[in-house]
Amino acid sequence: MNTQLNIKARRSFFSPSFVTLLMGVFVVLVLGGSSIQAQTTTTTDTAAPVDSSLTIAAKGSFSDPTAGTITVNGNVIISARKVVDNTSTTTPAIVMIDFDFSQLKGTSGSTKSTLKTYVTGDNQASEIRPLQASDTIIVTVPYYESTKDVLSARTMLVNATLKFDTTTGKLAAASISVGNNVVTSAAVGTTTTTTTIQ
Amino acid sequence: MSDRNFFLSPKASKARLREAEQARKERWDILKAQSQGQVSRRDLIKMGLFTSAGLMLPISGLSPFGRSAFASSNIPTGLPPSPLFTATPFSQAMPRFDIFPRIPVSALTPAPTAQANTTQQPVDPALGGGTGPIEGRPPGPIWAHQQFNLLPPAIAVDASVEGAKVNTTYNPGVPSLQNSGINPATPIPPRFHPNLPDQNVDKFWTYNGSIPPKLMQVRYGEPVLFRLHNRLSVFQNQNGGFGIHTISTHEHNGHHGAENDGFTGAYFFPNQFYDYHYPIVLAGRNSINTTATDARASGPTDAGGLMKIPGDWHETMSTHWFHDHMFSFTAQNVYKGIAGMFNIYSGLDRGAEDIIDGVNLRLPSGRASVSGKSWGNLDYDVNLMIADKAWDANGQLAMDIFEFDGFLGDVMTVNLAYKPYMEVERRKYRFRILNASVSRFFKIALSDGSPMIQIANDGNLLPNPVVLTQLDDQGIAERYDIVIDFSRYSVGQTVWMVNLAEHQDGRRVSKDLSISEALSGNSDDPCIGKFLEFRIARDPAQPDISQVPSTLIPNPDLSNIPVARERVFEFNSGANQTTNDPITSFFGPWGIKTDNQGGTLAADFGRISAAPKFGTREVWTLRNGGGGWDHPIHIHFEECQTLSRDGSASKVPAWERGRKDVWRLKPSGEVKITLQFRDFGGMFMEHCHNTMHEDNAMLLRWEINGAGTPFLNPLPTPIPSPQGVTFMAPDDILPTAF
Questions:
Q1: Which of B719, B736, B682, B737 has its CA nearest to residue B606?
Q2: Partner residue opposite A149 with nearest CB, options B490, B550, B646
Q3: Is A101 in the same domain as A8?
Q4: Do A86 and A7 share a structural domain?
Q5: Is residue B376 assigned to a domain?
Q6: Which of B62, B80, B98 is a domain's end point?
Q7: Which residues contact A112 (CB under 8 A, 6 or more apart)?
Q8: Which of B25, B384, B575, B692 matches a 20 to 30 Å C-alpha distance to B220?
Q9: How confident is the model over A55-103, as pLDDT tens digits?
Q10: Which residues, 6+ apart, have CB-to-CB distance to B315 below 8 Å?
């Protein structure tokens, strides 16, 4: 095989281009080489992740453009996994948070004939966040009438306030509020009203 | 600004921006020398620029993570932001993909052959001279097209990989009205925006050398011969400083023989071609529905009917892509533009929403009765290839190949266009979203939080659609097919696709933002926020009759198929190099430990790490050995089912309960999957699709054991050269492989 074709082929150490490169490297090292710490270490990161979970009984309401007020009940399961990066001294620990909204149910209407129920489907939201003692996460959540298909879904807003024990990385407390998602021509969803549940 | 951000803010001081630009130039000289073969990584280690693990030291003036001389302690130099010249967001129309022409096989000269065509041709002196075969596929029976006579190609696609040029043959497959008004007859220069410079021929390499990216439309029951010519320069140094002119194309994730899989060591040279034979068959064709009686196992005919084929209809696939897979250079070559998409049409997923026959799912696409096309309508079925890019002060594509943690761009592109807009009608659209980045994950939402319906994951229609207001993080190479119903908007309104996944470096997502956080403009990550604008342009000319059925494609039933074997693959940093073949092995900071034996090994396509038996099913555990990074792991050949995440089946989210071929392991995470080995044989791969990790050197070879003649046990390793491919015995076989 022609050695020039080797994808890791090397030319002579003393070729003109290599000497030029070497001189350039020397200059860079002398003039700029103040930091000598490796970008990452090369050991396997063996810190075990820390799992925790809370189930929050949610109850609240928001406005639907056609159904009017929808009242929401049900549990939200919040699972958190704290992960540490042992290979970096500058990277903060993170938590991976899964919200399971599948048990949330909504109702609208006040009489048997007008009563409608709403579900969120198999809805989950997964978030990666830096570990901090308190974190507020705003998540949009779809809902749709249980007798209709997913194409009829609209959006409500869940505002979750999470408290972590930063020593253990475990989820210590959580509260959830539910509010309206606003669809405008500016297309920015914001909470207009919120009802704190717990 | 955060301590570890990859890119400087445009608001950084002039001194810091100058410093970063100077550092980039100095680093550029070194990486260009390495990419052009003037200096090896081992030389750079000797010079003190790299650690023995292959990591570039954060030396001020070289690494973006070296300390800045113009900032407080430990603030990195950073990379200078890509200049935008006068380009502004959402000021250019998003081009739809450019469809590869389908031609008769008889139009190919020479005619394709089962075994590689070894007809000799002169080899350019720059490539060593002498003579060599016209086809770069390894010769002989092992690399012959499997079942070539049984599944002869019915159509052909004749394409090339070449440097940037003007596109004068653009075919979007839809009327201009459905392509945001783009006139396909207007030549398209190779640039990311009309106000950005044309890319140089050595900087930008794509299929056919042009943009928009290419789309191959195929259908079940119609085997395809994809002839790919390597028309890159014979001179390795004409690469614009990164990328290599030897190529191998992976059809991700085709169910076909290994000779067509774009094996990383089956690369070919300029002036050669490679014939890929894509039979487009359903998995299980030799054991399930072998008499082809089930109408759901089918491809569409031109007359609007069905062409029944053998195999399991539960294995029907829809959205693939194809890209370069050159050993140790995948990141560079794909970043340079060697990537396209591949839509597979079936009886179930027809691409014609008005055909009602009890099989067609009638997903948003377009009407056969309007277009005259009984399959593959694209009016409302849109491919989106999302990728972050960066360019230098001259506006030329720029990359830092020494960022082994992962390379990030600071500019969002869709279909290789900088932050475009797309005109849509008030109706349902299907979007086939591909993350074609090197290292960046995306998390996509609509700017108003409106629902989207995810219907497919990695090209496989889910058992049931899943309604979401923000998609899960989408790893590199993952494909998410979604449906958006724009009828909720009024004509004249706009809504944007927004990226919520914030990065500080290429290791993993640092933080998922809320929509309001992402829209606030406060993120240090320049790729956060709006990247694609939808302009609600009009009402549809015909009523929207497309559907999203509540049942799409249930998973194949594996309950009666015993598990023959379990294997564990752990993806780590700190790899050991136990082999040193100059062609097949490559050393880098990443590696894979197999079955808890020995250490974490750096890539060597001459090593066999696993050899499952033909016709069996196995369970594989994919484990992330660290908490500091994520790895999107890809397994070639056949789609798999996800059994559990972190030991729990309930942790598999609804959108991952179908079949998949890429899994984000998540930091310190673990995924258990099951897969089968059937229908074809040969050598395949498993690797991280953060392609900087893949190239440095988180990749392994596995092969199917006992697929019958002509396969040997073990298979010899191909060693390509322009003068012909030779073979050698595997240089390593792990004790638990067979």
A1: B719
A2: B550
A3: no
A4: no
A5: no
A6: B80
A7: none
A8: B384
A9: 998 888 999 999 999 999 999 999 999 998 877 777 789 999 999 999 9
A10: B255, B282, B283, B284, B556, B639, B659
Cα distance from A114 to chain B (closest Cα, Å)?
24
- Answer whether residue A38 is part of any domain: no
A150 and A178 together in one domain: yes
Of B468, B473, B586, the CB nearest to A142: B468
| pLDDT tens, position by position, B184-222 | 999 999 999 999 999 999 999 999 999 999 999 999 999
Do A69 and A11 sit in the same domain of this protein? no
| Interface probe, candidates B3, B29, B467, chain A, greatest A C-beta count within 10 A | B467
- In eight-state DSSP terms, residue B72 is S
CATH number of the domain residue B587 falls in? 2.60.40.420
Closest to B586 measured CA to CA, from B330, B259, B232: B330
A191 and A135 belong to one structural domain: yes
Contact A137 B514 (CB under 8 A): yes
With 0-12 / 13-18 / 19 or more C-beta atoms within 10 angstroms meaning exposed / middle / buried, residue B233 is: middle
CA distance B567 to B569: 7
CA of A66: how far to CAs of A62, B142, B604, in Å? Answer: 12, 65, 61
Residue contact A155–B469, C-beta within 8 A: yes
What pTM was estimated for this model as a whole? 0.91
ipTM of this predicted complex? 0.89
The whole domain housing A19 covers 3-32
- A91 lies in a domain? yes
Same domain (yes/no): A119, A165: yes
Instruction: Report the domain count for chain B.
Output: 2
Enumerate residue ranges in chain B where pLDDT < 50: 1-3, 71-75
Tell me, yes or no, if A161 comes closer than 8 A to chain B by beta carbon: no
